[in-house]
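User: Structure please.
Assistant: Input sequence and predicted structure:
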Amino acid sequence: MIRGAAPGQAVRYRNADSSDPDALGEAPVAQGRYVALVPLRPGTNRIRLEAGGASRTVEIAYRPAKIPYRVRVVYVTGQEGDTRFETPNPQDRDYRSRLDVAARLMQAFTAEQMRSRGYGPKTFALDLDRNGRVKVETLAYPLPAEELRKKDGGELWGLFYGWLDKRFPFSRNKCLVIMGFTGYDRKERKALAHTALGGGGEALFGGATIHSWPRSLRQVSRVFLDATPVDPALMLDDSAYRGTLWGLASTTIGACLHELGHTFGLPHIDDPLDIMSRGFDRINRFFAPFEPPSGRNKEPIFFGPDQTAHWSPYYAAQLSVSRWFQPDASAFRDADPPKVEAKDGRVAIEAKNGLALVCAQQGDPVGPRWFRAVSGDRLELPVQGLRAKMRAQDGPIRVLAFDREGNSASVEIP
């Protein structure tokens, strides 16, 4: 991802070291700003940028993550194996490209957010093929699609959990699961088998809106600038009342990342732009220079960098010590997780593997909060001092400790 300022209406880019079809393209410029999504190959990438008669070449080094901890993208059908999904174009059945691009957008968004928070481009690793595309695992669950469409989100999440764990052990995998059998009752204007639910090793999302997702990196800006109305008489409108294709793509791709956040142990938070609140509705703002008109805005919206979706500092700190975010790690030690105890007005923390991070939070969604990177294997904190640091209100708080092996523990203090 390359962002910056440029003259003219578009920035043309080309990665001279990549044969990927997306390595050559254009990024729109609005109010002098642009975002270019350029695929990289391992090693040095020489990328030429041209705009308004000016040009420059930038070099970006890319080193794939070696970590065995992966986010896997899974497309689930009924036992019939019918991979068709809800779409206004019956001839369009390409789910693989859409899931590939969406997953890479979530990964890139996270990497850039982590970089902006001071952790370097840490992000989760995806399972990729030799061409750098996401491997989309297509699995048929042993029940008819018609029967699956009668179940609610909680039932479906539970059905798939153990089934997926056997194939992709959750000790080293998180599964982003898209349900290809999700339907839409046009008469009732109601989705069937649609949900957004994440936790443990499974992030589950309905597939009735993936028709709005881009099929290539070159399409990303076009999709996020597409103000074509969504007709609820024909298709599910899950666009946060914006009623446009760009809003539909933004909300649903962002919601998938939100559910992945739950699998990384992150609860809801009161920060309105955090991915773990409704900030995911605005993930489009990270990839497009403005918002077109929609059901919520009659005129285009030009926004600043502090008005886009983000990972808050509090959650970026927690992701930075997650096992899934250590690009060069090969194994972790499960034994001797941290111990956190509250007694006599103090919190005592012990971590035989070495402390990495201590956090404190209050409420659901998380409101008052505090975090600190730490070292050593022991730490004591006065409860009243901790409450003051996090500006806690009356009521319980939770203290969390993370060690250098990616283990964690917590305690609730009344």
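The helical segments are 95-116, 145-148, 153-167, 220-224, 245-263, 313-320, 383-390.
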